[in-house]
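Long-time lurker. I teach an intro course on protein structure, and each term I like to show students one example going from raw sequence to a predicted 3D structure in token notation. This year I'd like something fresh instead of my usual example. Would anyone be willing to generate the tokens for the chain below so I can use it in lecture? Attribution to the forum is fine with me.
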Amino acid sequence: MTNYNIKSGDVLSPRSILIWRVVQTLIWIIGAGILFYLIFFPKIGIHLFWNILIPIAPALLVVGVGLWRNVCPMGTTSLLPRHLNFSKRKKLSVSQTSQLNFIAVIALFVIVPLRHVIFDQSGLATAILIISMGLIAIVLGLFYEWKSAWCSGLCPIHPVEKLYGLNNKLPLPNAHCYQCFRCVTPCPDSTPGINPYSAKKTNYHKLSGFLMVAAFPGFIWGWFQAPDYNGITNFAQLVPIYLYPIIGALVTSALYLILNRFFKVKFLTALFSSAAVSCYYWFRIPALVGYGVFPGDGMLYDLTNILPEWSTILIVSLTTVFFFWWILIRKNYKLSWMKRPNYA
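-- Reply from a regular --
Happy to contribute to a lecture. Here you go:
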């Protein structure tokens, strides 16, 4: 097991480490339980994963990305080889890291639209997707140091973490890394004000940053303009599920390029981050209760006979105000997601 008995200056005491391990284990068990339901009780599993867990995730990344980085079940899985001293602890070059980051962004843009035709309808398909990612995460953990290859590299959620976690309020202790081995530069956990543009060392870094800042808000809008299908029956179904997100991404990318002539990148990054997460909840919250663009798609429970439609408009208006205030307007303290542990 990893040795946490290091010299003075520890971020976490042994008792704190124990508490975090208990929390990580509980969250991992919950994740395993959702996976079980996806396979054997798919209707319940789909609701648990796509209609409860995933809708909560963006807000959690905005207000507590460090917490998520500490307890993410997939992250815990990927770090098991390192905690158990099975990892070869190789370090990735800057070029390799940038390529993994770019692949993660492309994977995000490819996988999310497939929800409309596969994952929102099939618990087994969603389970296979999760298991496949888990296996990839473990393999990467067997070869590469700490969070470099999966959590800060190939994970498709990581680009969203960097976009939504711009204005962190309270850095938490790092519950995985007992010392800093400089496994990735810049470290997303310990770099104040980390964002999609923080690394500009390669063209892959620059393109990844542009896609997440400029294109992602439109991509989200476009995703909600396509209906769910009950499986893939013909190729024509793939056209709208990708066409609308692509159109939206092109529109907001063009808008970004225009605004870039008048505003600083830092401001635009915060503006487009606020727009992206606000757009998500503007459509997602009504859909959860039956008031979606396509009624029934992504619905958790039909409340149309109880809640008037104006109430959902009020809720999403308040969430929009909150996210713009939190990310764009509120004072930016430039805090890191976590406190950097002692250098090894």
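Some talking points for your students: The first helix runs from residue 14 to 40. The chain has one domain: 14-339.
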